[in-house]
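testing teh design pipeline on a random one, pls ignore if ur not involved
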C-alpha cells in the first residue's frame, strides 16, 4: 500500500502527467516497445528520484515494461503530492509526500527498499547509502542500478575505490545526452524558474554570483546573463575558472564576491560554500539559493545561529534573516535545491533524454551481467537517444560513407 498525502489530489496529478508525456518522445518510443516486449518482467525496481510529473512518466513506463515498481522522492521538498496520488492510481507503489521530516524521509526510503529490489534508479546515492548501511542484507539481491547525478556518481566512485560497492552501477550522469543537456540547459532554466517564481524579483541589471562552473554552474551562469544580469563565478578548479573567464564572466573568490551579489546560487556538490563570514559581508536584500543535491552548500545552520531575527517572506519558500550588522538576507527553499523544492524541475524535453538513458541502462544491466563497480553508459545507447530526439524534431543529419568511415579509421 502506498504512503501518500491525499488520494483526492490525483486528478490534478493526472493532468500534469498527461501534459508532459506528449513532449517526451524518447520515453514514448520505449513505451511502445515495452508494452509488447515486457523487458522487466519479474524485476522489482526501487526508485529514488524527485517525484514530479516527468519522474512519474518514467516510473509508469517501467511498470508497463513488466516491473513491480516502488518509488520515493530523493528530496523532502521535491514531491508533488498530486503527482504522487496519480501515480499510485496507475499501478506504482508510492512512498512519498512533500515536507517529510528527516526521520520520515528515511522511513519512506526504507518502505521502498521493503520491495527487496533487483534493480534501482538512484539520485544522490540515497538508496545505495541505505543498501550499504541499514539495509545491507538486501544488497546481494540487487543486479545493479543507474545513478543520475554528479553528487551520486561521486559518492559511488568513492565507495568503489574503497572496494565496498556491492553491485554494478551505471553512471547515467556522465553520458553525453545527460550532462550536456540535463545539467547545463535543464539546471540553467529550472534554477531561474524556481528563483523567479518564488521571489517575483527582476534579474536584469543585478549581480549574480554562481559558485561552481561545472556543467550545471555554467548553465546557471549563462541563463543569468541571458536574463540581463552581470555574472561573477567562484571556483576552486583553475581550469574551470579560466573557462568562466573566457566565457565572459568575472571570476573571484567568494570572500570578494560576497559584497557584490544580489543573488547567490551554489552549484558545487560540496559543503560550506557560503558561510557566516560571507553572510556578514552581504548587502541587505541578497537572495541565497542552492541548486546542488544536498542542503549543505549554504551553511543554513550557521545563518540561523548568527541571525538576530528571522522574518517571514512572501511565501513558504522565502525566509529572511536579519544579521547583527543590520542587513537582511533571504534564503530560498531552506537551502535545498531550488529548482525542485520551489519549482517543477527541468523541462519535459530535457528529462526525456535523462530518463530514456535510465530505462535503457537497466535493460543493459539485465543483458550484460557486470561485477560491482561504476560503469559508463554504452555509447550506442547514448547515440540512440540522440537520434530519437532529432527524429522527433523532424531533423535529419548526414551519415558517413563507407569511404569516409575507412578514412577515419586509418592512420
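output:
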Amino acid at each position: 500500500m502506498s504512503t501518500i498525502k491525499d488520494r483526492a489530489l490525483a486528478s490534478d496529478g493526472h493532468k500534469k502527467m498527461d501534459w508532459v508525456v506528449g513532449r517526451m518522445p524518447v520515453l514514448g518510443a520505449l513505451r511502445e516497445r515495452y508494452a509488447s516486449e515486457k523487458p522487466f518482467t519479474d524485476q522489482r525496481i526501487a526508485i529514488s528520484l524527485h517525484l514530479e510529473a516527468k519522474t512519474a512518466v518514467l516510473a509508469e513506463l517501467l511498470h508497463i515494461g513488466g516491473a513491480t515498481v516502488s518509488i520515493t522522492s530523493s528530496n523532502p521538498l521535491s514531491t508533488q503530492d498530486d503527482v504522487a496520488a496519480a501515480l499510485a492510481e496507475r499501478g506504482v507503489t508510492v512512498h512519498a509526500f512533500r515536507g517529510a521530516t528527516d526521520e520520515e524521509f528515511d522511513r519512506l526510503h526504507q518502505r521502498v527498499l521493503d520491495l527487496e529490489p533487483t534493480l534501482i534508479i538512484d539520485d544522490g546515492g540515497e538508496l545505495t547509502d541505505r543498501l550499504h548501511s541499514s539495509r545491507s542484507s538486501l544488497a546481494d539481491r540487487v543486479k545493479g542500478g543507474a545513478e543520475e547525478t554528479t553528487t551520486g556518481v561521486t559518492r559511488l566512485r568513492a565507495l568503489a575505490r574503497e572496494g565496498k560497492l556491492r553491485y554494478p552501477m551505471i553512471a547515467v550522469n556522465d553520458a553525453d545526452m545527460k550532462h550536456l543537456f540535463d545539467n547545463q540547459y535543464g539546471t540553467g532554466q529550472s534554477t531561474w524558474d524556481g528563483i523567479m517564481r518564488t521571489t517575483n524579483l527582476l534579474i536584469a541589471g543585478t549581480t549574480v554570483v554562481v559558485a561552481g562552473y561545472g556543467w550545471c554552474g555554467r548553465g546557471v551562469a549563462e541563463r543569468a546573463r541571458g536574463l540581463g544580469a552581470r555574472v561573477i563565478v567562484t571556483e576552486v578548479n583553475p581550469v574551470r575558472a579560466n573557462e568562466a573567464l573566457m566565457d565572459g564572466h568575472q571570476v573571484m573568490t567568494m570572500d570578494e564576491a560576497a559584497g557584490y551579489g544580489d543573488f547567490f546560487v551554489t552549484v558545487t556538490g560540496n559543503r560550506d560554500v557560503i558561510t557566516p563570514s560571507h553572510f556578514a559581508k552581504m548587502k541587505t536584500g541578497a537572495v541565497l539559493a542552492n541548486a546542488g543535491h544536498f542542503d549543505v552548500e549554504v551553511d543554513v545552520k550557521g545563518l540561523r545561529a548568527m541571525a538576530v531575527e528571522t522574518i517571514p517572506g512572501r511565501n513558504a519558500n522565502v525566509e529572511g534573516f536579519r544579521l547583527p550588522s543590520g542587513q537582511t538576507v533571504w534564503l530560498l527553499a531552506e537551502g535545498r535545491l531550488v529548482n525542485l523544492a520551489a519549482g517543477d524541475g527541468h523541462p519535459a524535453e530535457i528529462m526525456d533524454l535523462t530518463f530514456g538513458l535510465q530505462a535503457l541502462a537497466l535493460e543493459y544491466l539485465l543483458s550484460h551481467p557486470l561485477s560491482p563497480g561504476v560503469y559508463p553508459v554504452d555509447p550506442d545507447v547514448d547515440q540512440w537517444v540522440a537520434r530519437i530526439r532529432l527524429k522527433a524534431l523532424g531533423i535529419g543529419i548526414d551519415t558517413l560513407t563507407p569511404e569516409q568511415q575507412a578514412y577515419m579509421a586509418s592512420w
